[in-house]
Amino acid sequence: MNDPQRSPTLLWFRDDLRLSDNAALKWAADHGPVIGLFIDETINRSIGAAARWWREQSLNALAQDLSFYGVPLLRRTGNPLEILPKIVSEMEVKAVTWNRRYHQPLCEVDATLKKNLRDKGIEVHSHPGFLLTEPWEVSTATGTPYKVFTPFSKAAWEVARVHAYETVKNNVPVPSHLTGPEDVELPILEMEQPFWSTTLVKECAPGEKNASEKLFDFLEHLQDYPQARDSLARSATSKLSAHLRFGEISIHRVWAETAAIDSEGTELFLKELLWRDFAWHRLYALPHMDTQNVRMQFNRFGWSWDPSEKDKLNTPSTPLIPTKADQFHEDLAAWRAGKTGIPLVDAGMRELWATGSMHNRVRMVVASFLTKNLQIHWRHGEEWFWETLVDADPASNAFNWQWAAGSGDDASPYFRIFNPVTQAKKFDPDETYIRRWVPEYGTPSYPDPIVDLKESRQIALDAYSAIK
Fold first, then answer.
1. What residues bind FAD, as annotated (predicted)?
2. Beta-carbon contacts of residue 139 (< 8 Å; ≥ 6 apart)
């Protein structure tokens, strides 16, 4: 590799596990041979078990796709500040490139790496691509980040449209000149399997190819989306969230292909894509959103909380059972296991455990039930979803939990308490969804409700009145 013209560019993959519409990959291919790298970073919050399973499948698919072009995908675990300079030196890398990310401490890591490598004469380039809009591109008239979605979406719409158009126009599907160094062996990836991967395999299809197929299938029925998206018995949602979370498909491509369709569902779905951007913009401004209430008044709220519960989420073999003989731990365990005696809540939690996903309507219901009817801290819900959702990401997971709890930006008002019975009658009138996931529903073996919905609703409202 002594020939400078043949010295490779190191492409650091993060949440962009695809070949098409990948700005960093295109830049790397334009500059000669490419070496791919993925680091399981130990300086950040550990990825949850379900998302880790998805990521491993996606990395395996990516490695196979790269191998077709002779490009290796190296795997490392540890601190990027130590790993990247070592690889750059050992493999005589002339340039390093990556697609940007937007949360701490990872933004600081990237900035430090860029400076350190440039100081050593290494060319470094970062690219947009994970979001529709960069956080610094969309702000209020006073230059501050938006805290309310509606004005944010109006300000971000044209920026997103232009970026999507330019990205799809300029980025070829896969650079035809993509190639790897001649004297680097292609590594064999070892797959990591979580404890419930057998059920995930039946329900999930990670990888770039599957992401494209999902988008195509969804857009074929976009016209039905406004009426069908909340029907729990139908499969009318896009199913793209995990693919977008790991960048198996370009968010700009999803926007561009959706916007090209003249349909009643087009604007509605594009706004949902902007909601994802909004969550990331808020995390960019509030890096501790996963642990701290955005609305400070909720620091005085009397949610039940046990910090030691987090330590029990790493290696459960089944949904956790209570370890302490008190109502809080029993209620939390019943919620996680889908054994609350509230049919829609139980169906949603069992769907989550079996598939790594949950219908968005039901996510709001189970979150409201935990934080309001059971008066359990939203962080316990956020941590459980972080561990069991294949699409759990640092922004959307925390942002949506605080939205549901009433403690976040542009949140659902705390006094808006979803009634699981009413929601089931409206969105699952034939009980198809409930009976699919709770087969013992309606039989003597189904448990009585662990809480009275009407009484617990009033208790929640009274608790909220006390902190206003």
1. 225, 237-241, 269, 391-393
2. 145, 146, 155
Going from N- to C-terminal start, the domains of the chain cover 4-127, 130-172+195-287, 296-467
If one counts every other C-beta atom within 10 angstroms of the C-beta of residue 428, the result is: 23
Q: Is 131 annotated as a binding residue?
A: no
Q: Is residue 240 marked as binding?
A: yes
Q: Both tokens of residue 27?
A: 């830049």
Asked if residue 339 belongs to a known ligand binding site, the reply is no
Mean pLDDT of 127-148: 96
Catalogue the E-assigned strands of 111-193. 123-127
241 is in an annotated binding site: yes
- Is 238 annotated to bind ligand? yes
Angle made by CA atoms 408, 411, 412, in degrees to the nearest 5:
140
More confident: 169 or 240: 240
SS3 171: coil
- What would the pLDDT profile of 63-80 be if each residue is shown by its tens digit? 999 999 999 999 999 999
Q: Is 269 annotated as a binding residue?
A: yes
Amino acid at 237: T
- Asked whether residue 462 is marked as a ligand-binding residue, the answer is no
Q: Is 3 known to sit in a ligand binding site? A: no
Supply the pLDDT for residue 245. Answer: 98
State yes or no: 239 annotated in a binding site. Answer: yes
- Number of Cβ within 10 Å of residue 439's Cβ equals 12
Whether residue 198 is predicted with pLDDT greater than 80 in this model: the reply is no
What the block records as the tokens of 272 is 């949902």
pTM (2 d.p.): 0.94
Exposed (0-12), middle (13-18) or buried (19+): which is 184, by Cβ within 10 Å?
middle
pLDDT interval class at 1 (50, 70, 90): very low
**What is the per-residue pLDDT across 371-388, written as a single tens digit (0 to 9) for each?**
999 999 999 999 999 999
Query: What is the CATH number assigned to the segment(s) 130-172+195-287?
Result: 1.25.40.80
Asked whether the CA dihedral 436, 439, 443, 449 is positive or negative, the reply is: negative
Q: Phi/psi class of residue 442: alpha, beta or left (left: φ > 0; alpha: ψ in -120 to 50)?
A: left
pLDDT band at 401 (very low <50, low <70, confident <90, very high): very high
Q: Is 271 annotated as a binding residue?
A: no
Mean pLDDT score across all residues of the chain: 92
User: Thinking of the domain 296-467, which architecture would CATH place it in?
Assistant: Orthogonal Bundle (1.10)
**Strands 73-78, 34-41: parallel, antiparallel or unpaired by DSSP?**
parallel
Token code pair at residue 408: 């976040």
And the tokens for 69?
Answer: 């072009």
Classify domain 4-127 at the CATH topology level.
Answer: Rossmann fold (3.40.50)
Tokens of 121: 């004469």
